[in-house]
Structure formats: structure tokens, C-alpha cells
Amino acid sequence: MSKLVISTSSFDVDNNPPIQRLIKAGMHIVSNSQGRKLTEEEVTGLLGTDTVGMIAGIEPLTERVFASANNLRVVSRCGAGLDSVDLAAAQRHNIAVSNTPEAPSQAVAELTLGLMLAALRRICQTDQRLRAGEWPRMQGQLLAAQLVGIVGLGHIGRRVARLCQAFGAEVVAYDPYISQSSDGVTLLPLEKLLAEADVISLHLPYGPGTHHLLDAVAFARMKPGAVVINAARGGLVDEAALGEALISGKLGIAALDVFEQEPYRGPLLQHDNIIVTSHIGSLARESRQRMEIEAAENLLQGLIKAGLMENE
Fold first, then answer.
1. DSSP alpha helices (H): ranges in 227-284?
2. CATH H superfamily, domain 3-103+285-305
3. How far is 143 from 68, CA to CA, in rounded Å?
4. Residue 255 contacts residue 228 (beta carbons within 8 Å)
């Protein structure tokens, strides 16, 4: 019996037709029992040497992992990002890799908009003070009055731009892979966007070239009181520099759904001018279901192509 691993922290096996087809074909499913992101050592142990395919989360899939899982042939990422996968190592070990870039886009875009509105209207701070017995009257800001800077104009960034425009905000963007934009979005160099935008939202992949894209120098370029949103990848932001910018008042407020180390237990939690969520960008019921089914379908097709499943 061939073994398949689902390493995501949650996955609805019962309501997933491609997975049910694989089970009926005799595939044995092994799931992540930790309910969280796995470490390199944990995913290596879960895969063992008999796994032929996996549905991956955001755990590190490294050379060491692939070398150990010597029967692995297909990796299907349940999500958009591939920064956790050593693609060169996968190619060396003859492992096909796919992802689901479109499925989580709306969910992440809507969370981003929610974080923007919560930050601008001080919703979380007002809630906390009210629960503490106060009756706060905190004056916020209108999204419609802000210049929103989108860094990364891909599947998610374009959706965020449209949502902000629906509120009446002006939108500018930086994307090194796009030379001409439309839909009323003005392209700017990154330095100019950082200097001019009131709200800066990150929507680009993480890699060596984008590590700590927002560092102390970047924060120094921003307008006093700027708002920073990151629902992309934790490594895009230098968290120590972010903390300093929040303490100094250079930033008005930040909102993060992602961190360099997750689960996050670091010093940013001590600041009252930051909103934090636990990497929930894709965790909307409708988007999650679509993402899981697409990931399972990608796995099924990969196994068929590898000759490990028959094509009906």
C-alpha cells in the first residue's frame, strides 16, 4: 500500500473527492497530528522512506528532507507560496512540485482589508480598553483618505488594490516584474512608494532577494505615522526594526498575520500599536475548501503522471 502524507495543520479529508479517490485506490493517508507547522525533523519523520506523495503546508522541505524521503515523487503545496520548498533539491530528487496560487487569494485579500480597517479605526485598541473598564473615544482615519501602497501586484495584491479602490482610496504599487499597470493603479519605484504611501501592504514572495525588505532603512523612509500591513511572509519584515519604529512613533500602527518564527511569542506582542493574527490569511471556509480540493487534485494528477495511479 502506497503512503501519502498530509502535513498541513488541518485538512478535511472526508469532503475531498480527489483524496477519497486516492483512498479507494488503496493509498494510505497519514496526517499531521500536531495541529501546527512541523519542523524539518518532524516532517522528515512523518514522511519516512515509504511516502510517494504529499500535500504540504509551510513546513521546511529541504535537501535533507527530500534525500531522506527517497520514494517521494509528488509534492502538492496547499497554498500559494513556495518559499518553504527547496525547488532545486526537489528537481535533483525527481520530485514534481505544484501549488494553488489562486485559491487563497480572495481570503488573504479580505483579511488584509480587515487589518487595514482595524488599524486605521483603532478597532482592536478600542476593544481592549473598553474591556478594561474605559470608554475610549479614539479618533481614527478613513481608508478613503489614504494613499495605499501595494508591494507586489500578483494574485493577492491586485485584489487588495481593487478592494481599497472600492473604498475610495488611491492606490500605488511596486512590482519588479510588471512594467505597466492598469485599473487605476500607478506603478512607483519602491523607495518612492515607501516615502509617499500612508498605508503599505506587502504581497510578494519571500526569498533571499526579499529578506527583510522592510528594514530600519525602509522604515526611516516612510512618512511619520505610516501603517504597515504584512499578510504575506514573516521574513519580509525585520521584526526588531519594526519594534523600534513602533516605539519611536515613526510608524503609527502595524498589523501582522505572519512572523519569521511561528507560533510567534516575541516582543512585538508587548506593543499596543500593533495588531497580530496567527497566520489565518487563507482560513476562510470557502477559500480553504477550494484550496484543499485543488491541492488534492494536483497531487492526484502528479501521481498519475508519475505512473503511480491509473487515469480513469
1. 239-248
2. NAD(P)-binding Rossmann-like Domain (3.40.50.720)
3. 50
4. yes
Q: What is the pLDDT of residues 242-266, one digit of tens each?
A: 999 999 999 999 999 999 999 999 9
Q: Which residues are catalytic?
A: 233, 262, 279
| Cβ atoms within 10 Å, residue 137 | 6
pLDDT tens readout for residues 11-66 = 999 999 999 999 999 999 999 999 889 999 999 999 999 999 999 999 999 999 99
Q: Which CATH superfamily is domain 105-276 in?
A: NAD(P)-binding Rossmann-like Domain (3.40.50.720)
Angle at 232 between CA 147 and CA 200, to 5 degrees: 15
Whether omega for the bond prior to residue 18 falls within 30 degrees of 0, making it cis, is: no
pTM exceeds 0.85: yes
Residue 242 contacts residue 216 (beta carbons within 8 Å)? no
Do 115 and 289 contact (CB within 8 A), yes or no? no
